[in-house]
Amino acid sequence: MAQVRSDAESGNGGKQRGKRLRSRSYLRWPTFLKSSRDRAAAPPVQDGRVEENRPLPTHLVVMVNGIVGSAADWKYAAKQFGKRHPENIMVHCSESNYSTLTFHGVDVMGERLAKEVMSIVASKPFLQKISFVGHSLGGLVARYAIGVKSVDEKIDGKIAGLEPINFITFATPHLGLRFHKQIPILQGSYKLEKWAYRTCWILGRSGKHQFLRDQDDGKLPLLVQMVNDCGNLQFMSALQSFKRRVAYSNVCFDFIVGRKTSSIRRQHELPKRQDFMKNSQYPHIVYVEKPTTFDTPKMDFLATTKELRTINDMEDAMIDGLNRVPWERVDVSFRGSKQRFFAHSTIQVKTYLINSDGSDVIFHMIDNFLL
User: Fold this and answer.
1) 3-class SS of residue 359
2) Is the dihedral of CA 154, 157, 163, 168 positive or negative?
3) Whose CA is closest to 63, among 51, 47, 50, 74?
4) The predicted structure's pLDDT at residue 157
5) Contacts of the segment 18-24: beta carbons below 8 A, 24+ positions apart
6) 185's torsion region: left (phi>0), alpha (psi -120 to 50) or beta?
């Protein structure tokens, strides 16, 4: 009460304090940008009453944004997950890499994401399972993060101590961006692709990694290394531990990431337009390829460092390496959509106002999600 009287007696001081409080309230982060730690700390509420007996979610879904992105990029998808599986799933939109922090490189971003996930898991002992969903560069960051001391040496096949279930990527350049037509806006022009290769430093270390320019000390580019286990970095062992791996890719109008690199295929392996299907439930899903594996021997990096000299050799090595584990491939086409020119963002519904046509792709992911 003493404090109340002093505020009241302060006159203008009390008014100023009120203004500061209103301003501070206005600048608070939106709910979807708050950390999962803050969101999960409060008890569930329904119809104004606290649900004391509501079960705690056991499945953590980590959603990772792409370059110059933020946690807000996955707002729509996270909301749909919450509606469909309110009791089973806890969605966390990663907050450790955003804006210009996404220029720091796949490895640095991957380390940050790994620490973020470990922190969440440590504070939520009720979690039992884990899945990752990454868009564009975020898919590469997630692939790096799961290999960072995340396969528990004491409990085989665990990621951050949890059972790995789904690993899903949307328009992710798994093979990098340096190959022919991997950046569609360049139209497969050798001169334009060479120019992009020389100017990729604009995107910092992330640009070098995606264009395979990071051949430091005679080592293979990071993306090539990531199709194998490298010392303490268990990239493929971690990826193999997931029950399911899915690669969503845009067939056309994605001017940022090409279809080959996002679907982990060679040119002749891409489904033709006459093979596309029609689905009234998911109108923009045009082809679904069941998971297959290829019997490819594990690479000896001491030998391949000298052998993989050309870009084509590196591309083949990455495709063969990643295909040692089965992938579901989902081809998406926004041809005919008014939002087709934003396909790279529409596939994840980055901003609902201009990317809403991708909502059926999000529902396809959720409907086929393993709990």
Assistant:
1) helix
2) positive
3) 74
4) 86
5) none
6) alpha
* 334 contacts 357 by C-beta, under 8 angstroms: yes
Taking the C-alpha atoms of residue 252 and residue 185, their distance in angstroms, rounded to an integer, is 11
Q: Looking up tokens 């396809």, which residue turns up?
A: 364
DSSP states along 72-136: GGGHHHHHHHHHH-TTTEEEEE--SS-GGGGGS-HHHHHHHHHHHHHHHHHH-TT--EEEEEEET
**pLDDT (mean) for 107-113:** 97
* Strand ranges in 136-236 using DSSP code E only, listed in sequence order: 163-170, 229-230, 233-234
Question: Which residue type sits at 361?
Answer: V
The four Cα atoms 111, 115, 116, 122 give a dihedral, to 10 degrees, of 160
Distance of CA 333 to the CA centre of its chain: 20
- Which neighbouring-strand residues pair with 151? 159
The structure's pTM equals 0.83
Per residue in 250-305, pLDDT tens? 999 999 999 999 999 999 999 999 999 999 999 999 999 999 766 655 655 544 55
Q: If DSSP codes are grouped into helix, strand and coil, which group holds residue 248?
A: strand
Are 329 and 249 a contacting pair, CB within 8 Å?
yes
Cβ atoms 144, 205 nearer than 8 A: no
